[in-house]
Amino acid sequence: MTRVGIVLLTLVIALGAVVAAVAVSPFWWFAAVPLALVGATAARDLLQRRHSVLRNYPFLGHARFLLERIRPELQQYFIERNYDGRPFDRDVRSIVYERAKGTDAEEPFGTERDVYRTGHEFLVPSMAPCPVPRTPPRVRIGGPDCARPYDMALLNVSAMSFGSLSSNAVLALNGGAAAGGFAQDTGEGGLSEYHLRPGGDLIWEIGTGYFGCRTDEGGFDAAEFADKSAHDHVKCVSLKLSQGAKPGIGGVLPGAKVNAEIARVRDVPPGRTVISPPYHQVFSTPRELVRFIARMRELSGGKPAGFKLCVGSRAQFLAVCKAMLEEGTAPDFIVVDGAEGGTGAAPLEFADHMGTPLTEGLLTVHNALVGAGLRDRVKIGASGKIATGADLVKRMVQGADYGNAARAMMFAVGCIQAQKCHTNTCPTGVTTQDPHRARALDVDDKTLRVQRFQDATVAGALQLMASMGVTDPAQLRPRMLRRRIDPFTERSYAELYEWLEPGQLLVEPPASWAADWKTADPDRFTV
Question: What CATH number belongs to 150-518?
């Protein structure tokens, strides 16, 4: 029986109990009143549009909100845990919800931070703060080989595919991007009508499965790629090398979620589990990678082209830098995905033990590009557990030009981390292809929440920067972020890490980089 049928049956039984109470015995009121309350509450839950859980689980869904109010006893487990079981530093989900709903407020009575905890980081305020810019700055993406550069917002929607997400979730994310003037990464699952319909800017991501531009044999279809990337809403094209939460393995979309529509978008057979290979067919060396990025740019009509990776061997990335220098071309952007990034489809061993955290990954990519004299041509995006303005500012201090958020954007559209992503039974309609469950996610309401969250988060970042005495991310310096290394000592990022000078690797590599620079070979990925 459907949800509507159960609610109607409850109301009919309640009405019968009322009739019995009037005509037979007043004792029937003990049944009539509770049944009427349950039926009325369930009917209201079905009709309201703010809470997807209540639309999918009328009346029963209120138990979830009750549990969230029992704090702090249940907060650690129900509120502060992410996909891989490790706690957030703060109640990040609540912060995202408040901003998405437009109810973000300052918290009085001091801080909950343990400022003397080893590893605690803090931004350095200035004695001469600046006014907060009226208009958020944007980042120009596009090097000398790019004919159609794009001005990227400071915070954008990170890669999440249609298929992994429901059609309504994709519509809400792209609608929020259109309303707020930021971009949405499509993920590797292809370019669907739900990405295109709202009119938001898109970064079309291509993975190892080449979904959406795939030959019958599973290879890259250049003609299909050129045709789709020409769409006006596609502003950049990106090649996914690896994902932070599971570098070295491909994605999996269970067959139960591969309906006819998803199969058509991905160019795969319906009803069969889709597995992305762990490696690409279009390149096998750093030089071939650089050439293929240049080909993607050419096929797209000169739009910015780049790649995403979870950083591994520093020598391998330096080999890519050498290939850029020798080929005379470079990506327009590189997105660094940190190992702390989330996904509902990562083996536990990979989530816990594989991949470089975002801080070290950003430092590696930024310094390698600076040292090779390429940093002015290549912009760097950061992805991995970015949810607040402070997260964004820290990542820009560490070398990023802009940030992408996935998990926080899912919270904005209603995700409650039920961890049912792979089962097709998501209670909020975010990660399901069940049309009845997906329908519970109201697109108009969640579109507004996505836009509000992004706007409030960027505004928070700008306010923090103004307090630090800067008005543009380009003015941020490593000395502006400090970390406590023991209860009595703290150091700035300028002191904790080595920062290369422009072109330093080409002239005289520092001792700590010399061996990797020498090992780096543009014609092979050295293990």
Answer: 3.20.20.70
